[in-house]
């Protein structure tokens, strides 16, 4: 049996053909049929019941021979680079139950709705991103058994969708991303509707009254619309709601108490609005099934109510960027993701019972004291973000059991002290380490070269870190907010501590690191000669240390380097000549008084004849450009002449015996050369 091909057990006929390129499988992204056309001989497989070519890389036109597949029940040719002008061939597939043409350009197929109406068995239809902007009128709907309809990301701005009046069996409707402005009254007749996705449209508060009668709704997504003012009271009648997303609107006022009627609510997202005017209502504690509560980016104030602790199913709580205050309720005992700010006091030791905790984000609070040792029980942590607090103590014990899962550790701007624990070298999943602006001492562990996630290039397929919220990082001297692009970030920031010793050679084996900051420490020694192994390095800052030696010539091969700061050290010699280093300003090198050459104004000896560096091997086998040796050579010439002169002629001037012997020696030489006269 070949993979993707299924045959009838009795007749042996091919009844299933699956050539889909699955982006989540091991070899995802390798489109086996890239730029190829769909073979016309597929139309000869007349017993075929299932055909899936989605994301396989086919392009061009759809062969009309597919009309011969009269036994086809499922057809998926979505996400292909195709433009189709005629869909008449589809009308011959009368047994079709599932059809997916998502993101195939059908803008010129004006009769698309008439063709779909000739498929009476159709129960699931996916036409997202097909560039529709209109449809031709149909007198009646022939596919009334349709239960799933996706028309998202088209251009139905002013459509009324009257043809949907007969879709009484519809369970899922997705019209998101159409910029719809008029009321969607047609959904009032959909007595079975449970999932309604309307994000990225232009609905206003006054155009939502049609929601009153849809009591069957379980999932409602109205994110990224133009809903202003207080929450519409029409929502209060949706007692069956399980998921409610009203994020990224212009909602104001307090969170209404009628939300307490949603006994089945599992997800509530009201983030990025203007909600405020008081504290969080105690009614939130009634959502016994609530697992995700997202309220960040509002103006909510006051303490977090203790009733939140009654939410036994709560796993994710995001309330960043509000004006909440007070202490962290010790009753939050089941979370897997926690983001809170503007809180004071200590981190409760009860957090150690959060065995499912994956993301702990308590940044930009006023938390103080030691991190509780009980956090070592949270062995599933992926993100720990505690930056900008007043936390103190050491680092080794409370992070001990997270070595397998931890991907981002951000402890910037606290008061942690002591050395960097050797246990950090076992964080094999760690991509982001930010320990800047603390009071850490000792040397950088030699074993940091074993951080395996920093050795390889970051992969965009690892989305586990991105779905847990954003992280603020200092890159190239500026602050950036990372969320979905977080999977591509590999960085190490140990700046502004009291670290001593040399830069470990092992750091140069971290080939995947893009941002490395070791500035404002007391590091000495040289920049490792093999730093060119860090081929993806975009930003390097080792300023304000006690580093010495010449700048390695190998640095000119760091072609991705766009930010460099070597200032205020004790580097000497010529700056290696190459396009990469000469493209930086002199500010990248200032404070090293013995450096010379472009982009600095100080010229090197020998620049009159050539701007090229003169190779000269130092005591460690490196090339220093020859400038230092030439300087000492010319400075030593007068001194050597004087010393040599007086070593030879000094005894002759002050000793009669030396003079007699010297001239007697000269007479002997003359006699041997010329013979007696």
Automatic annotation (TrEMBL):
Pfam families: LRR_1, LRR_8. It is a single-pass type I membrane protein. The chain crosses the membrane at residues 632-654. InterPro entries: Leu-rich_rpt, Leu-rich_rpt_typical-subtyp, LRR_dom_sf, RLP23-like. It is found in: Cell membrane. Gene3D superfamilies: Ribonuclease Inhibitor. SUPFAM superfamilies: L domain-like, RNI-like. It comes from the Eukaryota. This is Leucine-rich repeat-containing N-terminal plant-type domain-containing protein. One of its GO terms (cellular component) is plasma membrane. Belongs to the RLP family. Its main location: membrane. Keywords: Cell membrane, Glycoprotein, Leucine-rich repeat, Membrane, Receptor, Repeat, Signal, Transmembrane, Transmembrane helix. The keyword Cell membrane applies.
């Amino acid at each position: 049996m070949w993979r993707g091909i299924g045959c009838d057990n009795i007749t042996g006929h091919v009844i299933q053909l699956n050539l889909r390129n699955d982006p989540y499988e091991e070899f995802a992204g390798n489109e086996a049929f890239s730029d190829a056309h769909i073979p016309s001989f597929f139309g000869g497989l007349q017993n075929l019941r299932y055909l899936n070519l989605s994301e396989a890389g086919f392009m061009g036109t759809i062969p009309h021979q597919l009309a011969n597949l009269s036994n086809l029940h499922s057809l998926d040719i979505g996400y292909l680079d195709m433009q189709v002008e005629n869909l008449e061939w589809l009308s011959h597939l009368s047994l079709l139950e599932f059809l997916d043409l998502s993101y195939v350009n059908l803008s010129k197929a004006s009769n698309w709705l008439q063709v779909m109406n000739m498929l009476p068995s159709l129960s699931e239809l996916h036409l997202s991103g097909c560039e529709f902007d209109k449809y031709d009128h149909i007198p009646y709907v022939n596919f009334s058994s349709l239960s799933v309809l996706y028309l998202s990301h088209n251009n139905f701005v002013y459509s009324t969708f009257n043809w949907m009046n007969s879709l009484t069996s519809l369970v899922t409707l997705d019209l998101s991303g159409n910029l719809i402005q008029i009321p969607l009254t047609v959904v009032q007749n959909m007595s079975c509707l449970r999932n309604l996705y309307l994000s990225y449209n232009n609905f206003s508060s006054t155009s939502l009254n049609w929601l009153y009668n849809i009591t069957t709704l379980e999932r409602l997504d109205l994110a990224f619309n133009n809903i202003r003012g207080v929450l519409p009271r029409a929502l209060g009648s949706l007692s069956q709601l399980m998921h409610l997303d009203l994020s990224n609107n212009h909602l104001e006022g307090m969170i209404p108490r009628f939300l307490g009627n949603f006994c089945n609510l599992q997800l509530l997202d009201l983030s990025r609005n203007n909600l405020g005017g008081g504290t969080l209502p105690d009614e939130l504690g009634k959502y016994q099934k609530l697992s995700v509560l997202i309220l960040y980016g509002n103006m909510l104030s006051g303490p977090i109510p203790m009733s939140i602790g009654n939410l036994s199913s709560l796993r994710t709580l995001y309330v960043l960027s509000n004006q909440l205050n007070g202490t962290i309720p010790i009753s939050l005992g089941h979370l897997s993701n926690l983001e809170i700010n503007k809180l004071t006091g200590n981190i409760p030791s009860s957090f150690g019972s959060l065995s499912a905790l994956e993301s702990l984000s308590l940044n930009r609070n006023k938390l103080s004291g030691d991190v509780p040792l009980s956090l070592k029980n949270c062995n599933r942590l992926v993100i720990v973000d505690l930056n900008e607090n007043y936390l103190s103590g050491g680092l080794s014990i409370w992070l001990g059991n997270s070595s397998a899962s931890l991907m981002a550790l951000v402890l910037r701007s606290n008061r942690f002290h002591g050395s960097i624990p050797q246990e950090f070298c076992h964080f094999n999943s760690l991509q982001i380490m930010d320990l800047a602006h603390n009071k850490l001492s000792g040397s950088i562990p030699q074993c940091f070269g074993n951080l395996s996630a920093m050795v390889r290039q970051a992969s965009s397929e690892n989305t586990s870190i991105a779905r847990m919220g954003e992280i603020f990082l200092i890159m190239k001297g500026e602050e950036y907010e990372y969320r979905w692009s977080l999977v591509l970030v590999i960085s190490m920031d140990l700046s502004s501590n009291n670290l001593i010793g040399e830069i470990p050679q092992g750091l140069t084996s971290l080939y995947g690191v893009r941002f490395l900051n070791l500035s404002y420490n007391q590091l000495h020694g040289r920049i490792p000669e093999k730093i060119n192994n860090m081929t993806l390095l975009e930003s390097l800052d080792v300023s304000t240390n006690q580093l010495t030696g010449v700048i390695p010539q190998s640095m000119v091969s760091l072609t991705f380097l766009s930010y460099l700061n070597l200032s205020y050290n004790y580097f000497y010699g010529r700056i290696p000549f190459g396009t990469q280093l000469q493209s930086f300003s002199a500010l990248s090198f200032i404070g090293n008084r013995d450096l010379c050459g472009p982009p600095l104004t100080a010229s090197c000896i020998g620049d009159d004849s050539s701007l090229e560096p003169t190779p000269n091997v130092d005591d460690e086998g490196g090339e220093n450009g020859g400038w230092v040796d030439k300087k000492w050579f010319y400075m030593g010439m007068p001194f050597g002449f004087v010393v040599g002169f007086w070593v030879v002629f000094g005894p002759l001037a002050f000793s009669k015996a030396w003079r007699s012997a010297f001239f007697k020696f000269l007479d002997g030489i003359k006699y041997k050369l010329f013979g007696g006269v």
